[in-house]
Amino acid sequence: WLDNEPESNGESSEPSSPVGSSPSRRWRKGHDRIAIFDATNSTAKRRRWILEECTSPEKRAGKTTGVVFVESICDDEALLGENYKFKVKNSPDFEGMDLESAIADLKQRVRKYEEQYETLTDQSQSYIKIFNLSTRLMVNHIYGRMAKTIVPALMAWNIGTRPIFLSRSGRVPDMIKTDENDSENSMLDLSSHTKKKLLNKGDGLGGSGLQYRDALCEFFGQEGKTFMKERLEKASSPSLRTGTSQTGLGTLENDDLPFPARILTSVMPRAIETALWDSLPVPIETISNLNPLDKGDFAGMELDEVQKQDPRFYSRLESDPYNTRFPGGESYCDLISRLETVVIDIEQQVAPVLVVSHVSCLQALIAYFRNSPVEQCMSIEVPMHTVIKFTPSRGGGWIESRHVLVEEPENAGAAVINVGSVPGNLLSMANHQPNTPIWGDHKSKNESPPPSLPCL
């Protein structure tokens, strides 16, 4: 650890180059758009060197590069105390030490670090300062996408251990032809009275869909109680009330529930009904951004119908399913853009989150939590009546598990996968389940889209 003596001072020699590794060399050649240099960068001199390495016309000729520094500052004594406990209980540096001695050792390291640390003050640089786990932020020269997406994301990320649950809506009756990726147009032939009845009285879901709704309620209730029990045993957990600070806490929205939770659904009646539970009345937040991919002129059609109606468009869709936009509708690239705010909303939660949506949206969210290329998310299969659970893994990443709540032929082979350590190609192989009917609820159980096309 850092010592301020000359012979061990980090400034006594040039720091090792961030562009020396293979990933960084690839970034310098322009194959990747973003690089994160995770290092101490504790002095103004070191930060100037980084700027020189990344922005020098000689070293980055023809490749305009922006540099943003991110600084996290914590001076809240209550937060520091909790963080110290979490650190010493989870770091191998303190194995075999009692808690009091480990914390004293850690505090000594922090003091050595503080002796030479120089905070960000250069107003000509772009930087984001985060105070006390997002209690307060300071930004300087931050514009465009950085302000729109990155700043909210930095505020949202936290070290909480809350689980995140993803689920398709329950199956609807075969007599009502609905496309799992259609908009509310799929019910335009029904009267407004019937729509209200479908939503409020449970007639929207079929028999197995209603069975899944009840099973999901029981499953989510048990998971929430387990989360609360495990939370009490952990050294540090963010507040379940407003924000993550230890001060200025608000009140929970519903103290009558056995545990705090957040449920997000699309505005589709079948998705809302899947999360309407009498025995566990968690408030539902409907978000139009969770609506399925808008297929525009091809709304309600299957792949074979699209191919028959417009062979030229079908050919383009087959060759580039990510960027091809449906006439009058969306592409998967468009879908990813509108899901950004949903991801930030999910990430900022410190209590269990359930998302009830549709195949296209869930494919994108699964790719995010797996840290797999979102451009390839169209091939991710999302079985019916199955909950996909993501739990933060120690050291980063997420542990993925699938829980079949209502047996369906396509649901065989639920797996538990640590997505923080398993390569993406192995994930695809481990989760490949042939003949999964994920284009629409009304497809026959043995149909599946061609392997080269998105599982819309």
Automatic annotation (TrEMBL):
Q: Where is the composition biased (Polar residues)?
A: 236-249
- Give GO terms for biological process: fructose 2,6-bisphosphate metabolic process; fructose metabolic process
Secretion signal span: none
Residue ranges annotated for the 6-phosphofructo-2-kinase domain, each copy included: 33-156
Asked if Metal-binding is a keyword of the record, the answer is: no
Q: Name one GO molecular function term.
A: ATP binding
Task: Locate the compositionally biased regions of type Low complexity.
Answer: 9-24
**Cellular component terms (Gene Ontology):** cytosol
Q: Which top-rank group of organisms is this from?
A: Eukaryota
Q: Where is this region: Disordered?
A: 1-26, 233-252, 433-456
Q: Which residues lie in coiled coils?
A: 96-123
Designated name of the protein? 6-phosphofructo-2-kinase domain-containing protein
